[in-house]
Amino acid sequence: MGRVFILYYDYRHTSGNHAGMAHLARTLAAGDERIRCIKHPDQQYKGGWIPAWFYSRMLVVYLRCILRPGDQVVFFEYLSGDFGFQDTVARLLRRWKVRHAFSGFVHLGGTQLLELYSDPNQIKRRLDWVDRVLVFGDSLRDFLQHIVGYRGEIVHTFHYADADYYHPADSLSNSESGRLQVLFLGAIKRNLDQLATIIAQTRNSVDFHICMGRQRYPQLEDMPYVTRYGYLNEAELLALMQRCHVNLSVFYDTVGSNAITGTLAAGLAQVASHVGSIEDYGDPSNTIWCEDTAAFVEALHALDTDRQRLRVMQGSARRMAERISLRRFTILFNSIFFS
Questions:
Q1: Distance separating alpha carbons of residues 12 and 16, to the nearest angstrom
Q2: pLDDT by residue (tens digit) across 87-109?
């Protein structure tokens, strides 16, 4: 059985924690000596793309020299723009007649892909350099098949939840009384205008905890019952999750979100925009899907006034996370690449 070389990028906002593709790559490699990880250099600074571009060329030479029959290459950031230049690596290896099996994880949504690559033909051309595409949601699979016109193999996987690290507080008794605590995480593909409207229209019995890192959004400044957070380390973020009842996701689009999977593992009921692949990460026992602002406001009010329903949804959220746990993803990965 050959080796599997994973090419991954360690994003700063998830670096060193239990979410994101870097943690996944390291976990897979730690559990199987056949898996080797190759980390792209940090390029998240002005001009960082230049050394990353040169590194990608050196990586092509390195892989061409060390790949043996039966080896595979897995691109963890395929079609992620210039981060790692992974499509360039695949293209140059193919040009050098490297025929080993290539697989690419694509985890940006269709609208993001069109923003990066302008038109479906540019996307399809890059997909043709790999043998297999892996996605975290059915909406992306459908986009690649029906909009891009890709006819190769697409494997529908899932964005993992590290359910060993992320877990509920020892007791969910805080669901029974007190003000409803609502968490909002992230800024990418979030509809912040709609979020501000939801907060403004929600009854005063709800506290909102907004985690957007360094990004600032004037409409959320000085709103009552809103607490803004800058950078939180992972332990601080987990503690905040465990203090909250509900994870609020106001998306333009989503394929697989660590904000969703992490809060599921922490036992938070989900209130989310009904977009993208959101139904891959919940069901009516743990999630309320919302089509418009009024539905969000109604959902939060319903959970605030029916704490029994809230407690049931919290328990179901944790069970959902266990179904998409990191342990189960490891089993799935091995079945795909070593069967």
A1: 8
A2: 999 999 999 999 999 999 999 99
